[in-house]
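protien #1 (seq + structre)
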Amino acid sequence: MKKGFVIIGVIVVAAILAVGLFSGSEAESKKVKYEVESMTESSYVISSNNYASHADAGYKFVTARIVITNLGTESISPSAFWFKIDCNGVTYSYDINTYSLASEYRYVSVNLEKDASVKMDIVFQIPASSTGYSLVNYIPSYIKVA
């Protein structure tokens, strides 16, 4: 009888270790690092077809230039949805002008392989009176942030 408990105990411990090892490697397979290179305020942005888009009355644009690097082993597809701006406890999502910005770093959908980086501009529209704001990451929980 004692031998049966020992065998079951060894199997349980082996299963727990296997799950722990798998979870650790799984978490490392999707891992990113991001840096905010700059945040620039303006009352308008220029689209890729040279059209000036003005911020709504009482608002201003903030363009965040972000560098994202894939530190994991699997490819990832960064998204503008990954970031928001917090202004005094109110969170703002990216502005539609993100997709048509006349910028070398205009947001486009890409796949990043291991160790690859992309620089992208994401536009937000926030109240013009805002002086204190910060970029907040909403990177999905299945992707580890370094």
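ok now protien #2
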Amino acid sequence: MTFKKVLSAIMAGAMVLSMGLTAFAAATPSGVELEGEEGYDIEVGTATQVATIKVKVPETVGFVVNPYRLDVKNEELGITDTSKSQIVSPIQKIENLGAFKISVGGTIYAVENSEEAKLVENVTASGTDLAKEASINFNYVAGEGTETTLSTPNTTKLFEAKAEAGKALTAVEIDAKDTASGKPVYLFQFDGSAQSNPSTPWTEGDTFGATISFTFTAVANDAPAGP
């Protein structure tokens, strides 16, 4: 019985000693004692804290060309409310999930999928023998994710994006995730107009396409206020 108590006490002491040594070693950096030396070189180590960009993007993006102003609803494209607009598109968003600002830029490319339907800067207002034309805008702006309309957005016309090189988008800064005002997001939406009285009626094959190549760049947080 006595032997067991002594062994138990030794083991407990060893455990305390081991824990003490571990804590001491973690809290105290190693050093070199110098005596009688005229100099000593120290190799300086460095590390860089990198910014890992984290965003959430929509799975499906699209718009509907509605030249005859019919009731349009397309849940596959996120159009859940009926609209009679000639270019129907939901407000889409890219969320910044990181702890720092990001700058969202990129390039938009546009194509005409029909020989007859054309992207134009402005739809012809009147005349005879009118062509199937559509003037489509890509609108984008920083927001909080609760907007029902885009206020003073940047705008790029798909007519300008038909070139092989596409059309560069103006960079927009999106705040970090932990803002008190709401979820910082990049909002975008298509709108515009289409010829409602062409000499040749619109068909299902008269469509347009667009590709948006987004780029995300880290932006440094503001410096902390001085004492």
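DSSP finds one helix and 13 strands in the chain.
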